[in-house]
Design a protein that fits this description.
Distance between the termini: 44 Å
Number of strands: 12
Shape: elongated
CATH superfamily of the largest domain: Response regulator
Low-confidence stretches: 1-19
Order of helices and strands: HHEHEHEHEEHEHEHEHEHEHEEH
Strand content: 15-25%
Strand order of the largest sheet: 2-1-3-4-5-11
Largest sheet: 6 strands, parallel
Structural class: alpha/beta
CATH architecture of the largest domain: 3-Layer(aba) Sandwich
CATH topology of the largest domain: Rossmann fold
Bound molecules: alpha-L-arabinofuranose
Number of domains: 2
Helix content: 25-40%
């Protein structure tokens, strides 16, 4: 007899004792037939950094390993193109769509159109606005990191290292994206109980190295009193380090740095003492995403949010992690 999770009992129809029914919204999601191989659409947001390249490689490797067909698109940093990419996948009648939504709101039409077309969708790594579309109702599930926790962990390690006192420049990720929103919120939630931890400037560097360099340079010129950098990803961190060094400053001494991801360059910067902490955001989604598709095709009920387990890297464990870095 099938057993049901606690979530499935929420919103039950007719709560007669023992007579559990799957939530109507979940039951109404597009179905996936059980097959040996699937034609999977993977709608990537951009390919301008090592994290995205590692994520794409992980999906391609997993498709090859299983003998599945992968229909891959790269939105090149445009939410509008990503919506068009999903429409093209719908037209090609893929079995299932894996979407890494660039931003929270503009990708809502893509989610709703896939549902209307009867194609199950999983959100990979980034989320959409939860007031407009929900896991287990409009798409099957979100699979990814807890970005809020990442922000809190970065804040916790930084706060301890600086004795609760820092003037912080924050480099945000892409405006309107779930990692930028949640990493900002998580960091702010942690430091609110530490009045000596002050964000003196915060601006988007669009998760990109050169933009991060330019934005940091401008913010640091305006705020030479800064003593720390909190950067939403390693690429912007590496850009900011270049700007610090060009200004004759010593990263790791003049500015203490907290970052997120786990790229090779940032791991080397940890080893070199330039970066204090890198909170991991693991891009290797292939196995988890494809396993989730298989489970859904087998008729299993999935939790609407499947959260990756991530680690925290400092100079103490950076060398051991380096062989895995990307
Ligand atoms: O969505 C995850 C974020 O997107 C990664 O931290 C970043 O490097 C990427 O572009």
């Amino acid at each position: 007899m099938k057993t049901f999770t606690r979530r499935e009992t929420i919103g039950l129809l007719g709560a007669a004792a023992g007579a559990f029914v799957v939530r109507p919204a979940y039951a109404a999601l597009p179905k996936l037939a059980k097959k040996d191989t699937y034609k999977v659409g993977f709608a990537q947001t951009e390919s301008n950094n090592p994290w995205r390249l590692a994520q794409t490689k992980s999906m391609q490797d997993e498709a090859t390993k299983r003998g599945w067909q992968l229909v891959y698109t790269d939105a090149a940093g445009s939410a509008a193109k990503q919506v068009a990419d999903v429409r093209s996948m719908i037209a090609q009648k893929v079995d299932v769509i894996l979407l890494a939504p660039r931003e929270e709101k503009p990708l809502i039409p893509a989610v709703m159109e896939a549902k209307k077309a009867g194609i199950p969708m999983f959100l990979i790594d980034r989320n959409v606005d939860q007031t407009l579309a929900k896991g287990g109702e409009d798409y099957v599930a979100f699979i990814g990191s807890d970005f809020t926790k990442e922000g809190m962990q970065a804040a916790e390690v930084l706060t301890a290292a600086v004795g609760g006192k820092a003037k912080i420049i924050e480099l945000q990720g892409s405006t309107g994206s779930s990692p930028a929103n949640d990493r900002m919120a998580g960091f702010a939630a942690y430091i609110k109980d530490h009045p000596g931890m002050e964000i003196i400037a915060s601006q988007s560097g669009d998760f990109a190295r050169d933009k991060g360099r330019q934005v940091f340079e401008t913010l640091y010129q305006a705020h030479p009193e800064a003593t720390a950098l909190y950067s939403h990803n390693d690429e912007m961190t590496m850009g900011a380090i270049a700007a610090m060094e060009a200004a004759g400053k010593v990263p790791g001494k003049d500015l203490i740095i907290a970052s997120i991801d786990g790229t090779k360059d940032a791991t080397q910067a940890l080893i070199d003492g330039k970066v204090l902490v890198v909170v991991e955001c693991n891009p290797k989604f292939g196995p988890a995403a494809f396993d989730a598709v298989v489970k859904y095709g087998n008729g299993e009920t999935l939790e609407p949010r499947l959260v990756n387990t991530d680690r925290v890297f400092t100079k103490d464990n950076a060398a051991a992690y380096m062989p895995e870095a990307y």
